[in-house]
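Thread: "does anyone have the structure for this chain?"

Original post by V.I.:
We have the sequence but no experimental structure in hand. Need at least a predicted one for the grant figures.
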Amino acid sequence: MNSPSPSDPPAEPETSDRPVGPVGTSSGNVTIVRRPTQSGSDPEAQGTSGDERVFHIIGTAHVSRASVEEVKRVIEEVKPDTVCVELCQTRYETLTDPDRWKKLDIFQVIKQRKMLFLMASLALQSYQRRIGEQLGVKPGAEMLAAIDAAERTGSKIVMADRDIQATLKRTWANLGFFSKLKLVGGLAGSIFGDDDEIDEQEVEALKDREHISDMMSEFARVMPQVKEPLIDERDLFLISSIEDAPGKTIVAVVGAGHVEGMVKNVGTTVDREALSVIPSPSTFWQVAKWVIPIIILSAFYYGYQKHEFEGLVAMLKAWILPNAIGAGLFVALARGRMLSVLTAIIASPITSLNPTIGAGMFVGLVEAWLRKPTVEDCENLGTEVSTFGGMMKNPFSHILIVSIAAGLGSSLGAYVGFAWVASLL
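Reply from O.Q.:
Generated one for you, tokens below.
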């Protein structure tokens, strides 16, 4: 968006309760003029009765030098009452705290079962960092530029995005087992993929409205369960936060992929608290997750009753072998220590009978105890995860890989074991 400068009269969009953009030359940006009558918004945020409110939504690419310059220019020219950024407090601290990696406690990460959440964050940061290094732009630089420009112009700053943990947990909860495997494979590909060169023209093309629409359509087709919590819900959350921001003139800085969805939802009443809740499993699934353990234990009893000792041995073999082999093999492939492999072999057949715990937690704790990551390892985590060699070299990230591998191998083994036991009934 090329916002009106003091020397150029602004475009005169028709006053409306709906979007009137895009205005300007950048296809990724929109200007919206609204009367202060939308329901569900903060009356104090709407200004004096009868006053219009103007929203300048800047769609950016997160590693774009042009986006950084555009954000600074627009805010300095418009001098808005409020600047909204596509950040939550956690992500803001991640961008600005140079000591954030020092604060990581591997044992707490494993005990709280946040291994995949951390890996997802590392994967995204690694991918953006690789592109940023090629273009000489730090990922998230446009958000920091917006905050800096807001401070210089005296604008209020609003962190408009949903907390990252809520987004990741809602995304994860929306996936089935095989979708989770697919997502993990995609994350691994983003970390260990080819370092193809990318130029600034390609990055700027990511802000083009037609290009984005095509990408979103493909994303929805390939992984609809991910698109809903990762994109659609945040479109709602962002536009609601921006409409409730104080002042008459608002500049919002968001990823270009959110602009279209935000514009479609202008004026929509949004319950942001509901969108931030981590959904609990339904009663059906809370009961269903115990079905496999109950069936397996019943099968052990059936085998013993039907064929006495030989029947029990056959059932135990059908359950233990796939679980032990699956978990042990995955940990070995992840280059876990021998004691971690043995832990996986022993723990998986047992933990698969209790849905509240997992083999990955036990294996991860053993691997962490053996590798003993240091503060320096944590500090290096942000840079070493950009390559497979670095990921495996860093003790902290290697522990995460081993722990996740144990969980995946155990889950796969449990599926095979259940089918094998069922075939013997």
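V.I.: this helps a lot. The longest strand covers residues 53-60.
O.Q.: and The two ends are 67 Å apart (CA to CA).
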